[in-house]
Specification:
alpha+beta; 4-stranded antiparallel β-sheet; 8 strands; 4Fe-4S ferredoxin-type domain-containing protein
Length: 226
């Protein structure tokens, strides 16, 4: 017989999504409200590895108005929301306002740390993964313990992710958002628009999960407002 967490994972898998770990809220810790308004006791992160959800998203999009703003967020909310309803959870999204601490949740749930690009480095997926939402439960769940893994960036001496961008968008000083945006929108930004961030693609880890060019182009267009 499946456990609750296994059943949730199976429901998410129908749309190419996966559980990305979770945790229980500790005594005295601030917690967001659940369905009833009471503080939640457990958080399960939902996301993807590689581009598994892409064909599911495309099939959904075929029957939607092309004027939808942020269609991937809309699809994610629908899919995760349906699973939440089936299992008595509250579904939340990284783009919901007021913003919830998704990156802190992710680091806590999977024991990950940020790469120089700000994206969390995963020991298997590299930089090719994402978090699409979370399921909040008012009951405490038997969440598996976090398996700590080495941070791959610590052993990476060359740091190719900081040497491939033509405008040096990423550095020790942070992300030069305006420089990146201007470059992507400009004449010289075609490689980024069609194939994704050059710095991200330069990372040697998790390449088996690298998003296809069309997926990277979709995300780059959303970033640049194209």
């Amino acid at each position: 017989m499946r456990s609750l967490i296994e059943s949730i994972a199976a429901a998410l898998a129908r749309d190419g999504l996966i559980l990305r770990g979770g945790f229980n809220i500790t005594d005295g810790e601030a917690a967001p409200p659940g369905l009833s308004g009471a503080p939640v006791k457990s958080v399960l992160l939902v996301g993807q590895a590689g581009a598994e959800p892409w064909p599911h998203f495309l099939r959904w999009r075929e029957n939607q108005p092309q004027t939808i703003v942020n269609p991937l967020d809309t699809w994610s909310r629908e899919v995760i929301g349906a699973v939440a309803k089936d299992f008595g959870a509250r579904a939340v999204s990284p783009s919901d306002k007021p913003y919830l601490p998704f990156q802190q949740w992710a680091m806590r749930a999977e024991g990950l740390r940020p790469s120089p690009l700000g994206i969390l480095m995963h020991p298997q997926y590299g930089l090719w993964h994402a978090y699409r939402g979370a399921l909040l439960f008012e009951d405490e769940l038997p969440v598996p313990a976090v398996q700590t893994a080495p941070h791959l960036c610590d052993a990476c001496v060359e740091k190719p992710c900081l040497k491939s961008c033509p405008v040096n968008a990423y550095s020790g000083e942070g992300f030069a958002y305006q420089s990146c945006l201007a470059h992507v929108r400009g004449t010289d930004g075609q490689p980024c628009r069609s194939g994704g961030c050059l710095d991200r693609n330069a990372c040697p880890h998790g390449t088996a999960y690298r998003y296809p060019a069309e997926v990277q182009a979709f995300h780059m267009a959303a970033f640049a407002g194209l």
